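Expect sequence, tokenised fold; for instance:
***
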Amino acid sequence: MELVCEAASCYIPFEELSQDQLERFDNIVYRWCSCRRCRRPFKIGDKILIPQNAGHANRKTLEISLSKSVLKESTKLATQPIFLLTLIATALHEIVHVLFPEFDEGQTVHKTWEWLKENKWVPCAEEFERRAKEEFEQQLRD
């Protein structure tokens, strides 16, 4: 759970958040959930595919719940790496609900995809690697 939520936070442009949003982020609590909402099946015809909700957030208590049922069902799939990305996107979506409590579902989906597509951590990682390499080369010369 912690790894998934930390991965999701890599997509958040913290420099664009207000002080209130930063505080809200710092106080988010994450948990696996087995509530009725998280166990409700998603059906197409008579076939149950997976639980309907992958997660939900409480904007007042700052609690993010990810569905334990979705986790269990998805670990049985052959596409587990894709599921991991989906789980990260779900965690980010729920974080957006907490950071922007005024957003409706459509706005939350839009902001989640905006942040996912920006991928700001990639340039930061590239810059970090470049600086680390330069520092390492400098130490070898010294």
About this structure: The helical segments are 2-9, 19-26, 36-39, 68-74, 80-99, 105-118, 121-141. The mean pLDDT is 82. The longest strand covers residues 29-33.
